[in-house]
Structures
1.
Amino acid sequence: MPVRREKAERLADEELMPLIGARDPEAFAVLYDRHGGAAYSLAYRIVGEPGMAEDVTQEAFISLWRSGARYDRARGSVRSWMLSIVRNRAIDALRAGGGRAPKLTFDDEALLEQRPAGELTEEEAIRRETADQLRGVIGQLPDDQSKVIELAYFGGFSQAEIARMLGVPLGTVKGRMRLGLEKIRGKLAEGLA
Amino acid sequence: MSDHERWQEDIPAYALGALEPERAEELERHLASCERCRRDVRWLTPAVAALAEAVPPRQPPPRLRERLLDEVRPEPREASARMRWRPLVAGVAVLAVLAVGFLGYKVGSGGSKAGATYTGSGHGVLAELVCAGSGAELTLAHVHQLPPGGVLEAWVQREGRVEPVKGLFVPDREGNATTAIADMSGVDLVMVTREPRGGTSAPSGEPLVSVPISD
């Protein structure tokens, strides 16, 4: 028997997953309401087009609906698992369409469809503040490091492809990826201070 | 430089999903026996997750939620709603139906009639074709990852003539791939080939997998 909406809203993501695995639509709806915005935002960031971002997000959530029972909490949070599905689907969609990520910077605040702050829930507001801080950390990376990371994660290019595109040795690309990720990781470990 | 050090060099690309598929598979085999490298992956993973969290926020259109809930709720869905979907997600529209068990269907008989199911295999890939209306949904399992830029292209054969099926597709990380075939009339064989980005107008090689449509 499907769980009631009010009860599902009180459950943690990890508790919703077994219900989704048992095909509970209310649990699925709650999970979408929590993470659908982040999923769509990531898809849009990668594919750069609203219709395709919508399709990618839909595919990713349907995939989660089908495979919910396979979620393994040892591999990370439901949200990060969900976003990794979205990222992979978005890159696949780009490849199938012969396109690539049209934007390679985080400096597109002007394009945002932002809601007024008053309409944000407390949780959304915290997430948005964290996202602002994360953008600040990533924005502080040297250009050569942020470029290889963005080409890899948002563009879906392999490290060998990036080396060819930038005309630098493969070892240089590997080193820049390592340095950039270590800096982000270090800031996270410091609590984004 | 030791083998271990060489693997450590590749871990950032692996965490970012930027390692070539074959190399990633090799690294995963190494990870199975190397706690030090597993620790390195675990250390970097939150930095990659932060990239996803740092994108500028956008509001998804409300219709996306409606579509998803239509898809997962048990009520019968309207065929007309599915027809409005873009080709990219045409296959997704019936995944809930297919989810009752990819390999659990009985092979149908009696031609390409609605509801009939046909199967095929080749190169380790399993294919299942489920007819619906005048078309069909083709689902593949155990597809190896494609080289960068590679796509899957489906073809139908009618009276000995091979035609491309509009809409290229790619396998997901689990090796599953789905596409839709709009018109199954007169089709006696469905094939899938690996093609370069953008696809081709004629198969450039031997089919990866074929599904015969028997009468």
Note: Residues 35-53 of chain B form the longest helix (19 residues).
2.
Amino acid sequence: MTPPDNLDFDHVAGDDVSRHFGRRRAVSRITFTARSGTILGLLGPNGAGKSTMLAMLATLLRPTSGTIRFGSLDARQHGAALRSRIGVLGHDLFLYPELTAHENLAFFAGLYRCADPAAVASRALVQAGLADRAGDQVQSFSRGMRQRVALERALIHEPRLALLDEPFTGLDDASTAALIARLRALRESGAIIILATHDLDLTEGLFDEALFLRDGRVLSAVTRPEQLRSTYRAVMGRG
Amino acid sequence: MFARAVWLILRKDLTVEMRSGEIAYTTLFFAVSCILMFAFALVREGRAPEDGAAGLLWIAIAFAGTLALGRTFERERQSETLRALMMAPAPRPAVYVGKLIGIVALLAVVEIVLVPLVALLLEARVLLERPFWLAAILAAGTTGFAAVGTLFAAMLIRARTRDVLLPVLLYPVIVPVMIAGVRGTAALLQPEVDTAILGFWLALLVTFDVVFVTLALWTFEAVMTD
């Protein structure tokens, strides 16, 4: 399929999206819309289907049924082309431990066709506050430092859609605050951010909207941030 | 973009390998151990079995290559970096080609050490007198082996039993490459080189290479999706 001229989009929408692995339903009939300049939270306990949902949004998994659209573009038809507008930060950090922070970022900047990968990588390291460690191998970094490099790797090509899976895992308070500030700045720049987490405490005040998932289904959708806490208690309390 | 992506992946793999040396050292050690064991077992009173050097050289290459293939993709699995490669807008066949060239380069280093060892221990010094023909046979055979192996190693990256499955799936498919490689190398061991026979085996190897690489490029995108 020939990629469309304009790959940009101002919203991502899932319509009745399901994904089954054999007889197990990882995600079941989820409908949602995430708009430019907002952060959508996917909240739920482990095994709720958050990571599967993110993998489908990243076009790495195909829905068993239902459609995911990036603006007017269908993920099933334009998935390969759309990947240039999507950034993913997963459970694993997607970094090569033997390469330096700069080499890692320059490598991915090159794959994402950034004009000057070395300069882009240097700027990203300044953004991460790790410019002085640019020449150090990633395997010598702490978890928090690796997470900051991984976030910059995910955002190296200035994606329209950023998908973050449990990005606060293993971070100390300072790193968590830095990550939240980075996500807020990203939202202000007009990106669509979808963040999956099981921990609302760390993300208090960050989400504009949220979906509460359990066993692959949407238990509740919250469109007003002030409802998040009460809905979280109610939904998680159902056990 | 295709060539650029291939170069980026190849350069990254070589940089990682030069820093760790993990695959090169283990593969080389394993291949040299194989040849030493074969030499101790088969050479009697200074006489090696006729044409044995050709078979033993290719067995060592196949065993060492299988080890290298497994480790190369295991490295991408440990930090889930293969997923990041799949997410990038680079053409997926470029990932395959970058990995393939990296494996061939690594095996070339192993062969540079193995060939003199085989020549010395298995009475095959004549191999060293025909370096261009030998290089052509080795290059074509190694490419055919790595073309199939890289595809299978990538396919099996999520399989729990990948270490067992890789040789079980790979060896039956590369039997034609092994036969052509062994016969071509055996032809080089004759006192007088029959260029017609050598040309035949070399042409056969190149044909296998074209078929295997084409099939792998055609299927790689599909096998790496979902």
Note: The mean pLDDT of chain B is 91.
3.
Amino acid sequence: MAEFYDEVAKVLGATNLSPLRPGGQKRVFSAKRGSEDVVLKAVEILPPRQAEVLERASREVALLAKVSSASGRRIVSVRSGLATVGDPAAPSAVGWLEEMLDGEDLRDLLGTQWSRHKALELVQGVTEALTYLHALEVVHRDLSPGNVRRRGDGTWTLLDPGLARHLAEFSLTGLYQPGTAGYRSPEQVPGGTPDTYSDVYCVGILAFVALTARWPVDPSGAEDAYFKRLVQQQPVPVKTLRPDLDDEFAAIIDRCLNRQPARRYLDAAELLNALGKLTPGTKP
Amino acid sequence: MTILLHDGRRVGHAAWLKETIKAGLADGAILNAFATPPAAIPRHPSAATVIADLSGGQLLRSTGPEILFDSASWAATLPGTDFWQVYDEWDLWPHHSRGDLRDAGAIADHVRAVFKIQSELDVPYLAPTVAVDTATGQAAETALELSAEASRQQPGCMITLCGTNSFWRAGPALDAYIGRLARLRASACYVIPLRDRAGYPADLTDTDAIAGWLRSIHSLSLRSRIIAAYTDHLGVIAAAAGADTVGTGWDQGQRVCSRDAFRMSDPGGQNINYSPHPGLLARFTETVARGLRDLASTFAEAMRWGHAIPSDMREHREQHFRSLNEQITAVLKAGAAPADRYPAVRHMFTGADLSWDQAVALGAQGVSRNEKALWLDGMRNGFEAYVLAER
């Protein structure tokens, strides 16, 4: 019996599937469509969550199609519409194709203290990508290293806005919050209300980790304790761990990481504006 | 620093507003729907008349005194409010019953009605809100929806935030809520600390609530002008946290915002003929002021910053506003950023603390440790808790 992702691949005309991420309800493969290298994303829809999964997948594809062409390669582009397997009204699986990115995931690049120049490029790239989402009132909500990739030409690209929530369309506050431990904002705790400034906080985390190889808020231990630290603890100023950093860049990172959302940059456009006033610095 | 006078129901109020603004003791007024009617009623001129009188025919949005109209929806939706004589003359709920904010349509209609009135009065757009007890929950969401809807209808409008002590002490949940409000990028925030009890000075025993109120002013002031409504002598610490404007007046109901002020049994109209003693960060009744003067005239005069004890209502009003202005100006002169102003406030507190000890030692009637706690300790503790959290 064919796996659900094989059925999805068949509908999309994709061949040569090779797993990129571990299995689960959502499977990611490198694939070929004709001569083009693509990424196949396939989601199995099991009861009772069909409506939720279908809606999330539809949202992700629609969002990608909307922003990727405008983003100048800052957001991964979609290469197909949403394909369904079985009854279109109640499909057993859905899937779509995205461009295959060369380069490396950010998660494979962290672990040492980066230079100021390299960290600034990362922050600028991710922030620029976010401006396209925030302009549509969309919050990414999972700005973790697994969702950020440096292309072969050095362009930082944002992946997987599938957890994004369109603020105007979905105003329910759920107890469940998506996100990745270590890369959550204080609003991404149960009952919290993530907004564009939450993504700004997460940009601050990426910068902090890249520059210091340390967490601004340690996610280890019990989840409840981590959540409590997130909402109550102000991260130490980045210069505490990187005294060589210039005051201007350090101040921007510290402001991104302010525990109080009103004191951060409210969205990516504000942050990008502040970054634009920085001196570029020299390459390492 | 801008000083705005809150509205009141007493006969003669409009004339006193004019007199005080004309004398340069205040910069404008905040009319409200419970005090000033849309059309004249016996002994109470209409809002349009009051505004025309105050502005002397000038175009309000460019020159002349600043005048706002607070629809006071936050008061109209408080349990126990029952003084509807003036309020119900306004057409604030055209398609719904009073206080009905059940859905987006009702919210939009109410905001539209408020803005229509403000447009007709030619005053800036000030969004309506409801009072919030907690930073999460239905009332908090409704208040946010009102502000968001107002910002959609009139981008850059002023928004209103009215919270009780339990709201201001909500810690991280309060900060999260303030973040959501900040996202609206309002031109100004009209911030009301709603007290559980009437009485002057306001009850300041809830240190966490004062700290949360100041922290919120600080956060919102990074992007918006802050009008610290019903703040009066607390303007000293509100200014230190980033407030640009302080709301006050001559009656208790103008200086302290409490639920009682919107009830038939309102004690808010009580005139407060207190003699300012800025050296003690306090105001005393004439009897107490004279008692202190009789025991130590030089010391008492120094505590009044050289002013004589006022002898009539007009002098009381004048001294109150002059004293408030001088104190707040001293704080603002210390620097542009809140952190630059903290030392100036602390200097005031330290001086007042020593002076209070001296005053208490004199044994004057009405100048005891209890009064010190009422006037100084509560404000100081709240301020210090706020400053400590800013480190």
Note: The CA atoms of residues 211 and 374 of chain B lie 17 Å apart.
